[in-house]
Design goal:
By secondary structure, the protein is of the alpha/beta class. The protein has helices at 43-54, 66-76, 88-95, 108-122, 133-140, 143-149, 162-174, 193-202, 243-251, 264-275, 277-280, 283-294, 302-307, 333-350, 359-363, and strands at residues 6-8, 35-38, 60-63, 80-82, 100-103, 125-128, 152-154, 180-186, 207-211, 214-218, 224-228, 233-238, 255-260, 309-317, 323-331, 355-356, 375-376, 380-381. It folds into 2 domains: 6-158 and 335-364, NAD(P)-binding Rossmann-like Domain (Rossmann fold, 3-Layer(aba) Sandwich), CATH 3.40.50; 162-333 and 371-381, Dihydrodipicolinate Reductase, domain 2 (2-Layer Sandwich). The strands form 3 sheets. An 8-stranded mixed sheet has the order 1-4-3-2-5-6-7-16, sandwiched between helices. Strands 8, 11, 12, 13, 14, 15, 17 and 18 form an 8-stranded mixed sheet that branches.
Length: 382
């Protein structure tokens, strides 16, 4: 049985400091256009909501728990809606007058499908900030449904995967016959509780690469290489990052490996978890891991975010051995995610061809360069 979806508008009569934001950050879409941030009370959703409000935007803040959603709506003077995604009728009612939804409530392995179902039914554009390979693949499999509904489905409009996806597309454009793509980053910083829970769920699955066009499992850290980041070389190991899915859809390159700089102890722990996947994936162990995560900090504090940054490297090569590489530097992952996701909504509402898309397919490979604090270094052919 569907319960009633309610909306509240919070207005204290005061204009909050910085509401309008710098003129360069204001957008052209009509302010009457309705869009939503679902999971707005979570760590990433709240960052996106605060940034949107600072830029003079008025998203509807939504989630499944009334108290934190209403408290945030009151603090930001924004409308709120409360509904659960496992109630399909309530979700459709809540999205009936919404042009686009920024979905920030993970783990997306559980929440993406019902939200996409509701968006397709109500012709609402869907964007999220997932990094889960299985979710990317499932959403891209619904391209035909999205085109028929006239909507965009764009997962990964955050640090997962705007920088790496855009860099991959730029590299592929420079070497159109590339058959291999390698990507890496360093300096991500500490995860939020939601991200940590998603990582806990993924531990039993181990690593993943794309080989000859197919997703192929292999242990985390099975590959190791020295990567020439812009400032200095670093040793990185292979991990299951979202680009083994998204970069394939963006570039068509059939062989993709992703790397990250990780402490050896963490690589060993991931290896053990993969070997004991049946145990680590069991309900009691997963419950215990997530309970421990909930006892920690919600995520990096503002000072930690301000001090963090990330570096991204990528390289493509073709059958004759030609190579093109490039690097870029970004703010910390959460600040980039908030900025990228809000700007992505703006692009969608301004008009994007329908379908299941990656960020570079939707907005162009130069989209990453429009984000605050990003430096794209010149591509180099070897």
């Amino acid at each position: 049985m569907s319960f009633r979806v309610t909306q509240r508008w919070h207005d204290t009569g005061r204009r909050p400091f910085g509401l309008a934001g710098p003129p360069s950050l204001r957008y052209d879409w009509p302010m009457a256009t309705s869009w939503m941030i679902y999971g707005a009370n979570g760590y990433t959703g709240k960052l996106a909501a605060e940034l949107a409000r600072a830029r003079g935007l008025t998203p509807i803040l939504a989630g499944r728990r009334r108290d934190p959603i209403d408290a945030l709506g009151k603090a930001l003077q924004l409308p709120t809606r409360v509904f659960a995604l496992d109630d399909a009728g309530a979700a459709r009612s809540a999205l009936a007058d919404v042009a686009a939804v920024l979905h920030c409530a993970g783990p997306y392995s559980a929440t993406a499908r019902p939200m996409v179902d509701a968006c397709l039914a109500t012709q609402t554009h869907y964007l999220d900030v997932t990094g889960e390979i299985g979710v990317f693949e499932a959403i891209h499999a619904r391209d035909g449904e999205a085109r028929a509904a006239g909507v965009c489905l764009i997962p990964g409009v955050g640090f997962d995967v705007i920088p790496t996806d855009c860099l991959a597309a730029q590299l592929a454009a420079k070497l159109p016959d590339a058959t291999h793509l390698e990507l890496a980053f360093c300096g991500l910083g500490g995860p939020s509780q939601g991200t940590a829970k998603t990582m806990a769920e993924a531990l039993p699955a181990g690593g993943c690469i794309r080989r000859d066009g197919r997703l192929t499992a292999e242990p985390i850290g099975a590959r190791r290489r020295r990567v020439p980041f812009h400032d200095k070389p670093r040793t990185v190991v292979s991990i299951p990052w979202g680009d083994v899915s998204t970069a394939y859809h963006s570039t068509g390159i059939a062989n993709i490996v992703f790397y990250q700089q990780l402490p050896r102890a963490l690589v060993r722990a991931a290896t053990v978890s993969t070997r004991l996947g049946w145990l680590v994936g069991s309900r009691p162990v997963q419950w215990s891991l997530k309970r421990l995560i909930e006892l920690g900090a919600a995520g990096p504090d503002p000072e930690q975010r301000a001090a963090s940054f990330c570096q991204v490297w990528g390289e493509v090569r073709n059958p004759t051995g030609q190579r093109v590489s490039g690097t870029l530097r970004t703010p910390g992952g959460y600040d980039l995610t908030a900025d990228g996701s809000v700007r992505a909504v703006a692009r969608v509402l301004a008009g994007v061809e329908p379908g299941a898309l990656t960020p570079s397919k939707a907005f162009g490979s130069d989209f990453v360069a429009t984000l605050d604090g990003v430096t794209v270094h010149e591509l180099r052919a070897d």
